[in-house]
Every structure is written in C-alpha cells, then in structure tokens.
C-alpha cells in the first residue's frame, strides 16, 4: 500500500492532507523520514510516526471502553457527554461505532469498532451473544422475581419472551444476570416487568470477554482488543 493511502486508512486525514504531512517531513518509519507519498509499504507489524507520535497500523480497530456514568452512546449527545468525546480524531475519522448501546447512566464494558462485520456478529438479534449485567435494585430481590426472570417476561412493543440465565442474588438489593438479546432498555424493562426497579446498572461481560480480562481497565479508560479477546467477545453458547 502507498504511504499516503495507509495514513488515510488510519484516520489521519484526507488524501490531500496526508500527502502534505508526508511532503512536509512529518512522517517517519523506523527513524527514517519519508517524503514520497507513493512510497510502497509492507503493512505487517508496521509502526509509523506522525509529528513525533507513534501509531501502529491496524486494518480494523476493536476497542473496549470501561464506560463511565453520564456518557451517551450517540454522536450528538444532548444532555450528557458522548462516549465519542473519549477518542482522538484519528479514531473518529475511521468511523468507529458502538457495538450495541448502553444507557447514559449504565457503566461497564462497551465495545467500539470500525469493522461492520464484527458489529453485525455481536448485535444481530439472531446471534444471541450473552451479556452479563450486575445491578442494584430499588427493592429487595425475591426468589419469585428471579424465577420469573429465568422463565422469561414479555416486554411491551417487543415480540417474544425475554429470559435471563445465571440469575444470581449478590446481596439483598443486588442482582446479576445474563441476557441474550439487546433490545432498548432491556434489563431495566425486565426488572420492571417482575415488579422491581434498576437503580444502577453495570455490564461486566460480553460473550466470554469480561472487564476483568482487560487488566484493570479503569472507568473512562479504553484499550485495543487482542485477537484472542475479539474471539472471546464473539463467543456464544450453542
Ligand atoms: N439494558 C438496559 O436497560 N440498559 C442498558 O444500558 C443496557 C441493557
């Protein structure tokens, strides 16, 4: 791939802008400044530097964010911050999107990518990728509510039954459960359907990928996923 095309593919600007970066001597590889926009590159394990900042070439990006409270998953957030405020221009230029949505007041694991196939694989209703949520509830969690969640509940304006698996009471007012779809406000509506209310919601895991697999990722921090972690996120029971 030509140098100018590679820079453009990594979100560093338009073709014209990337040509200028190169011609102005801002781009180097292995310590050598490259001034020919048509310089041919081997993309394997490629690292490059632009204005002193080092980047690794990535064909696609797969990101895990430990989402804080008060951030919306939309680009034009109205009453809160946008999760996209947490990413730099190069990632935004690549057109990263949220893989499913978390409400502004939900915390925890949120994936973002510019790979449309990965996004589809995780969000398509037929794929049933498991998502594990922990929540604080307004009222004590009863055995009856847990049984109802496992049997499944109906949600207004949605077809079918929504059932949770691995429903566990962690404390009198704290519940953990796994859901297999991803409809709007699903967990909050499921809890309302059994007569309780979610006060605080946190996503711990997607597929087999848990926040604990992401070496201490703190709230508001993000990281690139490794190839193995990408597969863990896609994992679904058959
Ligand atoms: N279910 C909800 O109700 N909210 C979320 O943010 C995620 C799942």
From TrEMBL:
The keyword RNA-binding applies. GO terms for molecular function: 16S rRNA pseudouridine(516) synthase activity; RNA binding. Keywords: Isomerase, RNA-binding. Its EC number is 5.4.99.-. CDD domains: PseudoU_synth_RsuA, S4. PROSITE patterns: PSI_RSU, S4. It holds the Pfam family PseudoU_synth_2. Coiled coil: none annotated. The keyword Transferase does not apply. It catalyses: uridine(516) in 16S rRNA = pseudouridine(516) in 16S rRNA. GO terms for biological process: enzyme-directed rRNA pseudouridine synthesis. SUPFAM superfamilies: Alpha-L RNA-binding motif (SSF55174), Pseudouridine synthase (SSF55120). Residues 1-64 form the RNA-binding S4 domain. Belongs to the pseudouridine synthase RsuA family. Responsible for synthesis of pseudouridine from uracil-516 in 16S ribosomal RNA. NCBIfam families: pseudouridine synthase. This is Pseudouridine synthase.
């Amino acid at each position: 791939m030509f140098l100018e095309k590679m820079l453009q593919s990594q979100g560093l600007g338009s073709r014209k802008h990337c040509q200028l970066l190169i011609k102005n001597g801002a781009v180097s590889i292995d310590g050598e400044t490259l001034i020919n926009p048509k310089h041919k590159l081997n993309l394997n394990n490629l690292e490059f530097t632009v204005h002193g900042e080092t980047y690794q070439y990535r064909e696609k990006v797969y990101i895990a964010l430990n989402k804080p409270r008060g951030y919306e998953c939309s680009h034009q957030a109205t009453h809160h911050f946008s999760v996209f405020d947490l990413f730099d221009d190069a990632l935004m230029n690549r057109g990263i999107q949220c893989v499913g949505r978390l409400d502004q007041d939900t915390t925890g694991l949120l994936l973002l990518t510019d790979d449309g196939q990965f996004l589809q694989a995780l969000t398509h209703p037929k794929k049933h990728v498991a998502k594990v949520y922990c929540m604080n509830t307004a009222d004590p969690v009863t055995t009856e509510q847990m049984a109802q969640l496992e049997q499944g509940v109906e949600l207004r304006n949605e077809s079918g039954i929504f059932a949770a698996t691995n429903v566990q009471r962690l404390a009198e007012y704290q519940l953990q459960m796994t859901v297999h779809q991803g409809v709007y406000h699903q967990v909050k509506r499921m809890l309302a359907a059994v007569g309780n209310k979610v006060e605080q919601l946190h996503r711990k895991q997607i597929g087999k990928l848990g926040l604990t697999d992401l070496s201490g990722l703190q709230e508001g921090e993000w990281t690139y996923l490794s190839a193995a972690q990408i597969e863990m996120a896609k994992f679904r029971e058959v």
